[in-house]
Specification:
single chain; about 375 residues; alpha/beta; 8-stranded mixed β-sheet; 13 helices
């Protein structure tokens, strides 16, 4: 497999993909789903809300890490049982993940009448896990390369059938360890290893080998990749579901907060760079400087709850406690519901995200 996202369709194939299908009374969207550990439960809630609305048709999904897993689980459920099948598949996956919650949480504050808090940065088990993964390599901690997620994916998802179906196109990004290039896996090559590669945190798991190449988390080089949604999907409306905070009010001072902010900056940088390029091309198309049928205007939208997600702390991304996942699901569902109520009529007509401001948000 070539190690690039340039091995996509020809210009004729791309043009055919963009021809609108006749689905009356529907709005067509493509989704760009960020990764972020258990914070991906926020995206679970967003997808639940979108799939509950018969007015919404999803053309394609580009995802990284938890975003990729959400997308593939949803599409597998859709193939098996349409909208309700997609909703049930996501619900089943996240509840099973909660069943495997491995890190206990004390939450001593509740014993003294303090309100429930989902911050775990001072929880002993989470601090210990964070400490150990910085001292020992995955080969030391997990020499057998055990991964319960692999078993869940193989048991739940019919990859063989999925590879034959293109109702909703899938694009999963992973980072090639040796070449420092993003690899985008598409529907016809989808397998469990693609998802494990996209979600491979290098301090916790061995690099995932696919066809002789080794991969780490896709968030380092594409979180998520936008270009395949533009060139290979029929919708001109792309919704970015963002779970990594772009802005923070305070400068981090503790070692853990500094590392967390470095991680956020790294995982957002690839998206910002790609959006900056898209903003430049869009500006040239709009003013007539670029007159080329290969380029088209794309309307961007964003669903995020930056304030709530940024308050959770970095270690909460390892928390798969049932109550926490349900909190994130409900937050995502409600955020998507408000977004739809405010912006549904604008889909297909105008973007609700200022791409110029997003790409250069401090200017």
């Amino acid at each position: 497999m070539p190690d690039s996202d340039l091995d996509g369709p020809t210009s004729d194939e791309a043009a055919a993909a963009r021809r609108p299908l006749h689905r009356p009374n529907t709005k067509r969207l493509s989704l760009a789903l960020q990764g972020g550990g258990s914070h991906g439960a926020f995206t679970w809630g967003v997808l639940h809300r979108l799939m509950s609305d018969p007015r919404i048709y999803i053309d394609g999904i580009s995802g990284t890490s938890a975003g990729a897993i959400n997308g593939v689980v949803m599409v597998d459920g859709f193939i098996k049982g349409q909208r309700q099948g997609a909703i049930d598949a996501l619900d089943g996956f996240w509840h099973e993940l909660a069943d495997h919650c491995m890190i206990p949480r004390l939450n001593l504050g509740t014993l003294f009448g303090m309100p429930q808090s989902w911050r775990v940065d001072r929880e002993p088990a989470f601090v210990w896990m964070d400490f150990v993964t910085r001292l020992f390599a995955p080969n030391d901690l997990n020499p057998m390369d055990l991964n319960p997620l692999r078993d869940m994916l193989l048991r739940r998802i019919d990859f063989a059938t999925m590879r034959q179906r293109t109702e909703i196109k899938l694009f999963v990004t992973a980072s090639n360890v040796k070449t420092c290039r993003a690899r985008i896996f598409r529907t016809p090559e989808m397998q469990a290893e693609c998802l494990l590669a996209s979600a491979c945190l290098p301090l916790m798991f061995k690099a995932v080998e696919i066809d002789g190449e080794h991969y780490w988390d896709g968030g380092y080089l594409g979180n998520p990749a936008i270009s395949p949604l533009i060139h290979e999907c029929g919708s001109s409306d792309i919704v970015i579901v963002r779970i990594n905070p772009m802005n923070r009010d305070d400068v981090p001072v503790s070692a853990r907060d500094i590392l967390n902010r470095m991680n956020e900056m790294s995982f957002n940088s690839s998206l910002v760079r790609e959006m900056r390029g898209i903003a430049t091309v869009s500006r040239f198309v709009q003013d007539g400087t670029l007159d080329d049928d290969r380029y088209t205007l794309v309307r961007f939208h964003e669903i995020t709850a930056e304030e709530e997600l940024s308050s959770l702390g970095s270690l909460s991304k390892m928390n798969t406690e049932r109550g926490f996942l349900q909190y994130l699901h409900d937050l995502g569902f409600e955020t998507a519901d408000r977004w739809l109520e405010a912006n549904y009529e604008r889909i297909g007509w105008e973007g609700t995200l200022d791409v110029e401001q997003f790409a250069d948000h401090d200017t």
